[in-house]
Amino acid sequence: MPRRSPEGAGADRAGKSDKGGASGDAAADVAACKELLRRGSKSFAAASLLLPERVRDPVAVVYAFCRVADDEVDEGIGGLGAVRALERRLDRACAGTPEEGPVDRALARVMAERALPRVFLEALLEGLQWDAEGRRYATLSALNAYAARVAGAVGAVMAVLMDTRSEEALARACDLGVAMQLTNVARDVGEDARRGRLYLPEAWLREEGMDPDAWLARPLFDARVGRVVARLLGAAEALYRRADAGIAMLPRDCRPAIRAASLIYADIGRVVVARRLDSVTGRAVTSKGRKAWLLMQALASPTPEVRGGGDAPPLAETRFLVEAR
User: Is 16 exposed, middle or buried (CB count within 10 Å of its CB: 0-12, 13-18, 19+)?
Assistant: First the structure.
C-alpha cells in the first residue's frame, strides 16, 4: 500500500459518496472502501485477498483513506490546503464524528474498534505534506524518513489490525513498508521526474558526478542513474530480508497475504533490473501471470526461512511509529 502508485488515480471520488444517510450503513461503507482498493492498487488488492475477513475489511478501510488522501493532494484541491483538510477529516474520524461519506464513516469505526494509534495516520499526512512542499532528499536516511511516513506507517497499521503490537513485529512491519516505498522510488524515477519530483538521494547522484537540478530539468537515463537505482534496490532488498523475520510473528492466517505482498513488491525490483535498471524511459510492471505465481508461492510457503534479523532494532526513521503502539 505504499504511496505514489498511479494505479486508480482519481479513485477518491468514491470517498465522497453519501449513500446510507448520516450514520451510513457499515457494510455498504466497507464495500465502497473495497472498491477503492480494487481500483487503486492491483498489487495490494491481489495480496489482500489472502487476508482473513476480520483483517481484510479494516485493511480496505485504511487503504481507502490513504488512497483518498493521496489523490486529494495530487489531484483534488492540492497542496497544503488539501493536507489541512485531510487533517480535519482525521480529527473528526478520531472523535467519532466523521464527515459524510463511506470512507470517513468506516475509518471512524475502525479507529474506535481497533484502538488504532492516530499517530500512524498523522505520519501519513505528514509525508503528504512533504510532497506538497516539494521536498527532496539529500541522503538515504532522509528518504527513509519520508518512506517511514507514507509506507512504514501503513505497515504499522497492518500489524495492529492483525492484533500484533510487539516492538519486534512492528519494527519488521515498518521495514517492509519502507522497502516497498524504496522499490516504488526505484521504479518511478522517470515518471516522478516528468512531474518535477526527485526522490533519489541527491548525495548519491552527486557521487556519480551528476547535478540533481540539471538532471531533473532534462531527465535521461545513463549508467550513472542505473547505478543509483541499483543502490536503492539493494537498500530495499536488505529491508525485505529483515522484514521476512517479522512474518513469523503474525497470526498464521495472516502470513500468506503479507508474504505475497513482500514477494510481489520485491519482484518489481527484479523487473527493473531486467530492464537494465532503466526506470527513466519506461515503468517496470509485473504481469498478472507472475503475480498469480507469486501468490501461489506465498500460499505454499507463507513463513520464509530466515536466520536472525527478528530482534534487530527499528530503523531510526521508524522508531517513532514503533513506540506509538
Answer: middle
Task: Note whether 1-132 and 136-325 share their fold.
Answer: yes
Higher pLDDT, 18 or 111: 111
Question: If you average pLDDT over residues 53-74, what whole number do you get?
Answer: 92
Residues 6+ apart with CB under 8 A from 307: none
Q: What is the pLDDT of residues 182-201, one digit of tens each?
A: 999 999 999 999 999 999 99
Q: How far apart are CA 190 and CA 68, in angstroms?
A: 24
pTM of the model: 0.91
Q: What is the distance between the alpha carbons of residues 46 and 108, in angstroms, rounded to a whole number?
A: 25
| DSSP output for 40-87 | H-HHHHHHHTTS-HHHHHHHHHHHHHHHHHHHHHHTSS-HHHHHHHHH
Sign of CA dihedral 78, 201, 43, 245: negative
**Mean pLDDT calculated for residue range 142-161:** 97
Question: What CATH number labels 136-325?
Answer: 1.10.600.10
CATH topology of domain 1-132: Farnesyl Diphosphate Synthase (1.10.600)
Domain assignments of the chain as residue spans, ordered by start: 1-132, 136-325
